[in-house]
Amino acid sequence: MSDSKPKTMGQQLGRRSWAEPWKIKMVEPIRLKSKSDRQRALEEAGFNTFLLRSEDVYIDLLTDSGTSAMSDRQWSGMMLGDEAYAGSRNFFRLEHAIREFYGYEHVVPTHQGRGAEHLISQALISPGQYIPGNMYFTTTRLHQELAGGTFVDVIVDEAHDPASDFPFKGNVDLRKLEALIHEVGSEKIPYVSLAGTVNMAGGQPISMENVRSVRELCDRYDIRVYLDATRMAENCFIIQEREAGYSQTPIAQILKEFCGYTAGAWMSAKKDSLVNIGGWLAVNDADVFDQVRNMVVIYEGLHTYGGLAGRDMEALAIGVEESVDDDHIRTRVNQVRYLGNLLVAWDVPIVRPVGGHAVFLDAKRFFPHIPQDDFPAQTLAAELYLDSGVRSMERGIASAGRDSETGENRHPKLELTRLTIPRRVYTQAHMDVVAETVKSVFDNRDSFRGLEMVYEPKYLRFFQAKFKRI
Asked: How do residues 236-284 score in pLDDT, each as one tens digit?
């Protein structure tokens, strides 16, 4: 007699299921607009998902920046905002949290991450210098260029191969870095720019062994190492999971050790730290701190609020602590992997291994018939929205922009469409809908054509550019 009892997904797969380490206390209604309404909205937005109205979106995977759900502790902390112009007690709470969990001595709050990128770039980069890093990020590179510097990619070659299963595709290639030092001279390199879970590579991590080796190499040439710590909690989870010697080490301890190999960090706190606005720059060097503390007054606000309200700094201080909770970060990354694994099972081309904050669709393999100059990743983002109201974003030729000297389009090896999962916002049922949307477009991929750019802003064009169908 057969066993007809229904089985959970975990039982079907021969494992125990996991669940989110929180329960829902408040909900925000969302609604799927009709396809004709989505078509109208997409055309009005110039086929750029950044220009869609939020009310026209069903499941919003545009970004994880400022889109996470805050906890009851964070919301209650908002009521404790000290809105004094100078010396707010919430600043000192934030300063203490960053010192405790990241280990840096001096802290300057900013309105968000790019404010911190601007400060460190202006303070340390002189015209004609070179900034090596483990793949560019859009705003980071622009700030470095505006300060007169030139970004140089020294990431490992595996990072440019979306099909590679190399476990730490965010690693710096030490040979590339040392070759650059010999070519231009150490005095022409103000610092090495590192990023955890490298966004443009598909959310790929850097190992502890690698950051330790980068620091040792840079010490020999008297070059500083600075870190984009925006998604370091996710990076630390992958270290815990994949790197020998860390499987029993708490995330908070891994984070502090990693940061200990760097001279400072900037952060968009709108990601790992679970807040809707905020960022910071933290350094150990007192002279660098003196420079950026003076500059923040010009561009952001007094050095004890940096463009943030006291209530925002309080929520951020609490979010820093919550972000390194092992149960939280494990669940966060596993939800991303749940979506990625569904797509892999359906042979949808994605960046592998699945990253820490998003699933990146490989638009070159998705649409092999669309030339890169016809914006295949932008096309894919537009068609996903049209199919079922799911908003994603392009990370390819549109994001790469133009070469500052030649004016020609940069042609990155990776042409990706990013499905970015906000923290503590969507359920696995939402992930099922997203996966089915991607599969629907993939099954009909031969019927799609590319896009032509009809409006191009001067800087960071992917935010505001407009397109039309070819």
From this structure: 999 999 999 999 999 999 999 999 999 999 999 999 999 999 999 999 9
Q: Indicate the Cα dihedral angle 137, 140, 146, 147, nearest 10°.
A: -130
Residue of 310, 322, 198 whose CA lies nearest to 272: 322
Q: Are residues 402 and 425 part of one domain?
A: yes
* In a shared domain, residues 358 and 444: yes
Residues in Cβ contact with 4 at an 8 Å cutoff, skipping those fewer than 6 apart: none
Look at residue 204 and give its three-state secondary structure.
Answer: strand
How many other C-beta atoms lie within 10 A of the C-beta of residue 10? Answer: 11
Q: Give the residue from 470, 434, 348 showing the smallest Cα distance to 32.
A: 434
Burial class (CB in 10 A: 0-12, 13-18, 19+), 97: buried
**Does residue 407 share a domain with residue 374?**
yes
Which secondary structure element, helix H or strand E, spans residue 321, and what is its range? helix 310-323
Q: Strand pairing of 130-133 and 150-153?
A: parallel
Amino acid at 325: D
- For the stretch 120-170, pLDDT in tens is 999 999 999 999 999 999 999 999 999 999 999 999 999 999 999 999 999
Residue positions annotated with a catalytic role: 85, 137-138, 228, 271, 395, 462
For residue 388, give the amino acid letter: S
